[in-house]
Design a protein that fits this description.
Number of helices: 11
CATH architecture of the largest domain: Alpha-Beta Complex
Number of domains: 2
Keywords: Metal-binding, NAD, Oxidoreductase, Zinc
CATH topology of the largest domain: Quinone Oxidoreductase, Chain A, domain 1
Helix content: 25-40%
InterPro entries: ADH-like_C, ADH-like_N, ADH_Zn_CS, GroES-like_sf, NAD(P)-bd_dom_sf
Shape: globular
Bound molecules: 2-acetamido-2-deoxy-beta-D-glucopyranose, zinc ion
Mean pLDDT: 92
Cofactor: Zn(2+)
Number of strands: 16
Protein name: Alcohol dehydrogenase
Family: Belongs to the zinc-containing alcohol dehydrogenase family.
CATH superfamily of the largest domain: Medium-chain alcohol dehydrogenases, catalytic domain
Strand content: 15-25%
Length: about 350
């Protein structure tokens, strides 16, 4: 690779404003680094949080994106487990040997480490922070996209069920039928749920949920809790929040905590609640502790580390048992990314994948 070579990359230059810019192709900085030549990347709901916040300026663009896969272009001298040419998924956070929870979240791509919506990505701690996948240049594009989602949303949809204490046979209410919610519903079906309810207000998303066997619940029509309780008089045994702090009510207004309150109402005694929707706002969220205690509920939440379930999810895809790419609504080139942020933000897209030559 020529010195001073540049690549095309997506970057935030202000609120609701993504720009495609030239950036230097990243180089090995530490002996434990790898440089990945990206073949596919994706736009995620968490990118939209930054998009809304208005990070970056035209003078100081902030590279974005944290879901990608590709093949290894080069490695540092200390890298042993992966080799130049290997196909790998880049999980959205890095294993630096001590994953953190709490105030210090794990190191992740995007504003912190450089964006993955770019032709090349530098991966620190490459031996532990990459997920090898059994593909090559002749693998069909839909299988490649299946693996791409192990980087974040498939792992997140899978893990939120663990947070809720999921067991086969459970009934599950999934709040949010965006990409993560759809893959949580899909994971619940794969893992033997007896019934899955998918709650949203965007018709296209509810249609996809129905296509994988979930029961669509449109909260615009009436109270989602009442709709689910009409099917499950005692409540569902698990409910999961795949929405987070930007949740809206039936009037389309942001109503902080609405999903948490719905989950408390719709979950049966001794049931479990899982939360992977992001809560980054400073607002306090109210829910009834008395209800929580009287129902003897349990609750799990947090950031998901895709590396924890990587082998399991890669094997499911390799064996043809899972194909999470059913959520993809558009496959685009890097220059189209600004327009597709707009479309994704307006719920005109379910999931957008960026393909590179
Ligand atoms: C995005 O920022 C660029 C650079 O400042 C500006 O030219 C463009 O009009 C902005 N676009 C939107 C949609 O705000
Ligand atoms: C790609 O992988 C498939 C399946 O593992 C294998 O059959 C095929 O020979 C490989 N092709 C190349 C070009 O390596
Ligand atoms: C539900 O209401 C919101 C806000 O009023 C609207 O944007 C959305 O299109 C509606 N969805 C359905 C499925 O009616
Ligand atoms: Zn993501």
């Amino acid at each position: 690779m020529a010195l001073n070579a540049t690549m095309r990359a997506a970057a935030l230059v202000g609120a609701y404003n993504v720009s495609i810019i030239d950036l230097p192709i990243p180089l090995i900085q530490d002996t434990t680094d790898a440089i990945v030549h990206v073949t596919a990347s994706a736009i995620c709901g968490s990118d939209l949080h930054y998009y809304h916040q208005g990070l970056g300026t035209p003078e100081q663009p902030i590279p974005i994106g944290h879901e990608a896969m590709g093949y290894i272009e080069s490695i540092g001298n200390a890298v042993q487990n992966v080799h130049v040419g290997d196909y790998v998924v880049i999980p959205d956070n890095v294993d630096d040997g001590h994953f953190n929870f709490g105030p210090e979240l794990p190191i992740s791509y995007g504003p912190q480490l450089g964006g993955c919506q770019a032709e090349y990505v530098r991966v620190p701690f490459a031996d532990d922070s990459l997920i090898p996948v059994p593909v090559n240049a002749s693998t069909d594009p839909s299988t490649l996209m299946d693996y791409l989602f192990v980087s974040d949303i498939f792992a997140t949809g899978w893990t939120v069920l663990d947070f809720a204490g999921f067991q086969p046979g459970d009934t599950v209410a999934v709040f949010g039928a965006g990409p993560v919610g759809l893959l949580a519903a899909y994971s619940a079906m794969l893992r033997g749920a007896s019934k899955v309810y998918s709650v949203d207000h965007v018709q296209a998303r509810l249609g996809l949920a129905e296509s994988i066997g979930a029961i669509p619940i449109n909260f615009n029509q009436s109270d989602p809790v009442e709709q689910i309780l009409a099917h499950e008089p005692g409540g569902v045994t698990r409910s999961v929040d795949c929405v987070g702090y930007e949740a809206v009510n039936a009037q389309g207004q942001i109503e902080l905590g609405v999903v948490l309150r719905n989950m408390m109402d719709v979950t049966s005694d001794y049931g479990g609640i899982g939360v992977v929707g992001v809560y980054l706002g400073d607002e306090q969220t109210s829910m009834s502790m008395t209800q929580f205690w009287r129902k003897a509920l349990t609750m799990g939440s947090g950031i998901v580390l895709p590396l924890q379930h990587a082998t399991e999810l890669v094997n499911l895809i390799a064996n043809g048992r899972a194909s999470p790419s059913f959520i993809v609504s558009s496959t685009i080139g890097i220059e189209d990314v600004p327009e597709y942020y707009r479309r994704f933000d307006q719920h005109l897209e379910t999931k957008v994948v960026i393909q590179f030559d």
